[in-house]
């Protein structure tokens, strides 16, 4: 399925089926959370948080696509991501966009 952050797909006409979204809340292991807290003292990349956020975006995207497939969509346009901190070491990721069906030109 095609995913686009733009509102138009060159050479395609489509009808909008509706908004689709997918979300997840992810956290890191308490040990990793403690280690990341200590790492902030010296600076540097917090790799376990990066992994958590990458996994969360992937899962949220897949859930969004599942919703689009349920509508028989051909693509999702205007895709956006949003994140928020739920608590220390945990974050929510939401992927959302407009499910569309291609029509003959």
From TrEMBL:
Signal peptide: none annotated. Gene3D superfamilies: Hypothetical protein apc22750. Chain B. SUPFAM superfamilies: YbjQ-like. Pfam families: YbjQ_1 (PF01906). Belongs to the UPF0145 family. PANTHER family: UPF0145 PROTEIN SCO3412 (PTHR34068:SF2), UPF0145 PROTEIN YBJQ (PTHR34068). This is UPF0145 protein WMO24_10510.
């Amino acid at each position: 399925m095609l995913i686009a952050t733009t509102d138009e797909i060159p050479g395609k006409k489509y009808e909008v089926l509706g908004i689709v979204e997918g979300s997840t809340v992810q956290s890191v292991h308490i040990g990793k959370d403690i280690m990341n807290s200590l790492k902030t003292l010296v600076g540097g990349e917090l790799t376990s948080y990066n992994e958590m956020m990458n996994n969360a975006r992937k899962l949220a995207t897949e859930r969004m696509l599942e919703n689009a497939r349920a509508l028989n969509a051909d693509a999702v346009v205007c895709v956006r991501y949003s994140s928020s901190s739920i608590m220390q070491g945990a974050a929510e990721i939401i992927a959302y966009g407009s499910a569309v069906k291609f029509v003959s030109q």
